[in-house]
Write a structure and sequence with these properties.
Blueprint: H1 6-34, H2 37-43, E1 48-49, H3 50-57, H4 61-73, E2 78-81, E3 92-95, H5 98-105, H6 115-118, H7 120-125, H8 130-136, H9 146-169, H10 176-182, E4 185-189, H11 195-203, E5 208-212, H12 216-229, E6 234-237, E7 250-256, H13 265-275, E8 276-287, H14 293-299, H15 303-318, H16 334-343, E9 348-351, E10 359-365
Parallel strand pairs: 4-5, 4-7, 5-6, 7-8
Antiparallel strand pairs: 1-3, 2-3, 8-10, 9-10
Helix pairs in contact: 3-4, 9-11
């Protein structure tokens, strides 16, 4: 064994435990969302002491205080040191900045970030199953995370989509807004809880929409939302029960953040080509990725997070059947997507000028 440099040893130990701090603080973020603490802070007109915050949430003050100290130390919430009204409690005053409010407490804000934290217990529970996956090579699909896993995906993706899909994305596609207004057949593959289908169905009443997903939990949620919407131009289906068309009859197909999760993405692209009309459009939305690990690690500040999420979710899903492709979260770069699309029978591939922190947007046509 080579001689250990004591300074490098300290630095590495510090680095390692910053990762543990992030995991523990993420657990506290989950609790802040789950228990409604952030929402209580967001609705307050003035900064709150922990006693006031405990009263507002009907939670125990001592637990609130320790939680708040973690969150303030991690700079997730803001604090003002202030004398306590009660000498028994060395209290401080806490509040959310406008930016913190948007990310932590406003479900309809495009920057809302609680979706992934919502499903944190289910994601971390996968650690109990992953050792066997490492041995056998077989992962687990998203339904292994239960109903809350589906809700997590819904809360993660819908706020941005609800704010931007109609106004900022669809107009970037050649002729799609006009086609949807006139009346078109549309399929959303990997529709999840159905947010995009219901959004487009409301905006374009002359078009017919169908969402496909294999998650029973997501489809159940989509059915509930469809009933509440009272839309008559939208439906949802499990493709094993109601397969996608194979007669080139669908004018517009969308896939949002799901191709890299699929066990057989190349086969899915071929199915999309069989379904779409010869003058149709496929909107592919997937994680921004480079062609190599080195490029991802040096160019993407979230690379470590995304590779870890891949092991616990995305790659696990894509290897949940024998022979799964295992693309992983960062496995569908623009070059890879274009090559796969052309192998499936598409000839035109164009990256859209859409700003998004995580996703890339592509227009693909026969």
């Amino acid at each position: 064994m080579q001689k250990i440099d004591p300074d490098k040893l300290k630095l590495f130990s510090f680095l390692l435990f910053t990762k543990l701090e992030g995991a523990v603080t993420s657990a506290m973020v989950h609790l802040g969302d789950h228990l409604g603490i952030y929402r209580a802070m967001a609705t307050a007109t003035t900064p709150l002491t922990t006693a006031q915050l405990a009263h507002a949430t009907q939670l125990n003050e001592r637990w609130i205080r320790e939680w708040a100290y973690n969150q303030a130390a991690a700079k997730i919430i803001s604090t003002i040191n202030s004398p306590s009204e009660s000498p028994a409690i060395d209290d401080d005053t806490f509040f959310l900045s406008p930016e913190q409010t948007a990310v932590l407490a406003l479900d309809n804000h495009p920057a809302f970030g609680m979706g992934m934290f919502h499903g944190l217990p289910q994601t971390m529970d996968s650690l109990n199953r992953l050792p066997e996956s490492f041995r056998t090579g077989i992962g687990h699909n998203y339904d292994s995370k239960g109903e809350q896993g589906a809700v997590s995906i819904e809360r993660n993706f819908e706020p941005w989509s609800n704010a931007n899909l109609i106004s900022a994305v669809l107009p970037k596609l050649d002729g799609i807004t006009e086609a949807l207004s006139a009346g078109a057949k549309v399929a959303d593959v990997g529709c999840g809880a159905g947010g995009a289908v219901l959004l487009m169905g409301t905006e374009f009443p002359n078009s017919e929409f169908i969402g496909y997903d294999i998650s029973k939990y997501a489809l159940a949620r989509a059915a509930e939302k469809l009933k509440a919407s009272k839309l008559t131009n939208a439906t949802f289906a499990d493709p094993s029960d109601q397969p996608m068309a194979t007669n080139n009859s669908v004018n517009f197909i969308t896939t949002f953040d799901c191709i890299h999760d699929m066990t057989h993405p190349q086969q899915m692209m071929q199915s999309i080509r069989q379904a779409i009309t010869d003058d149709g459009t496929w909107l592919l939305v997937d994680i921004k990725a480079h062609d190599s690990f080195t490029m991802n690690a040096t160019k993407n500040p979230m690379a470590a997070l995304l590779y870890g999420v891949s092991v616990m979710s995305c790659m696990s899903s894509s290897m949940s059947q024998p022979g799964g492709a295992g693309l992983g979260t960062l496995g569908l770069s623009a070059n890879t997507a274009e090559q796969m699309a052309k192998s499936a029978g598409f000839s035109r591939f164009r990256k859209l000028d859409v700003e998004h922190a995580v996703n890339a947007f592509y227009e693909i046509r026969p």
